[in-house]
Every structure is written in C-alpha cells, then in structure tokens.
Amino acid sequence: MTDEKTIMARLRQLPEDKKREALHFIEFLHKKHIQETTKPRSSMGVLSHLGVVHTEEDLKEARRDMWEHSRENSSE
Fold first, then answer.
1. How many domains does the chain have?
2. pLDDT per residue over 31-62, tens digit each?
C-alpha cells in the first residue's frame, strides 16, 4: 500500500474532530514545505505590482539627499 493510500485509510477511520485536526496539521506541513522550497523575493519583487520603477538616477539622487541630510544633522 502506498503512503497516500495508507493515510487515506487511516483518515477514514477517524472521527470528524480528529479529521479536522489532521487537516490542520497537513495544512501546516504544506505551508512549511512551500516556505522551504520558494525563494524569498526582494522587496522590489514584493512591491512590483505597484508599478513603481526606480532608475539609477533616482537612486543616486536619494543617496545624495541622505548624505546631505546626514551632514546637516552631524553639524548641529
């Protein structure tokens, strides 16, 4: 008997409340498997649906602003 058939045979013998408990455990295992097998996306990948595009010039400007702001704060 395959693992799947064994699982199903044993599952059929359980009362409803235990079947629900088994389902929750299976869902936990499935979620864990998905997390282990999927590559985490970068923050830009996660936000890509927003359609925001940052150019190299945007990044350079942001860096300049940060440096200028940090210099202003350090001279206070």
1. 1
2. 999 888 887 666 666 667 787 777 889 889 99
Q: What is the pTM of this model?
A: 0.49
User: Domain range holding 26?
Assistant: 3-74
Quote the CA–CA distance of 36 and 69 in Å, as a whole number. 41
47-52: long-range pairs with CB below 8 Å, 24+: none
φ/ψ of residue 28, rounded to 5: -60, -50
**Of 24, 22, 26, nearest in space to 11 by CA:** 22
Is the separation of the CB atoms in 26 and 18 below 8 Å?
no
